[in-house]
Amino acid sequence: MERAYFTLKNACQGLLKYRGSSFHAWVFPAARPEEVQAQLAEWTALHRGARHHAWAYRLLGDFELEERSHDAGEPSHSAGTPILHALQSRELQQCGAVVSRYFGGTKLGVSGLIAAYRGAAEDALDQAERHQVHPERVALLELPYELLGRMEADAQDERIRWVERAFTDRVELRVAVWSEHAGFWAQHWDQCYPLLWKWVKDR
Questions:
Q1: Fewer CB within 10 Å, N- or C-terminus of the chain?
Q2: How confident is the chain (203 residues) per 10-residue block, as mean pLDDT?
Q3: What is the per-residue pLDDT for 203?
Q4: HEC string for the chain
Q5: CA distances from 149 to 59, 131, 152, 183 (A)
Q6: How far apart are CA 109 and CA 93, in angstroms?
């Protein structure tokens, strides 16, 4: 996945009370399903008295965005799905959310559940800060010292950062660039003769 995306900068709680039931929400950044499961385990341990723990997440896979949700015993698509819709409406990725319901004695109906679960998730999202992430590609550059000044000038661009550098008879730079602008940098480096470069795996 090469395009920039928004994610949560921090985890936050939210709360919605509706017709006697309390919906406690927790939204959090995550990179892998295992991280989501760890967050869910910790949250549900804190809310053992809750009757339902519905959740959803949006994570970047190798080739596509993975979206999952769970209704946790509520009617189909009345809990996990509206939580997922809350994440989608904020255009958030690499994050998850869980909402725990303490039953207040009054049945809310499917429409009431949808509004409550989504509302609790949105309340937590309102407290959280989101930020933009740019996936990166890494390149190894080998250049003579006379080109170092030009590379240092390029480093002022926010779309590139130096990861490592080594100075011997030549200069070796390991740099990371925004993936969506990899073509620009490839063309730029091809024009910087006698610079040698190649894409490499990030370490």
A1: C
A2: 89 95 97 96 96 96 90 96 98 97 91 97 96 95 96 96 96 96 96 95 77
A3: 65
A4: CCCCEEEECCCEEEEEEECCEEEEEEEEECCCHHHHHHHHHHHHHHCCCCCEEEEEEEEECCCCEEEEEECCCCCCCCCHHHHHHHHHHCCECCEEEEEEEECCCCCCHHHHHHHHHHHHHHHHHHHCCEEEECCEEEEEEEECHHHHHHHHHHCCCCCEEEEEEEECCCEEEEEEEEHHHHHHHHHHHHCCCCCEEEEECCC
A5: 40, 32, 5, 22
A6: 30
> What does pTM read for this prediction?
0.84
Paired with 131 in beta bridges are 7
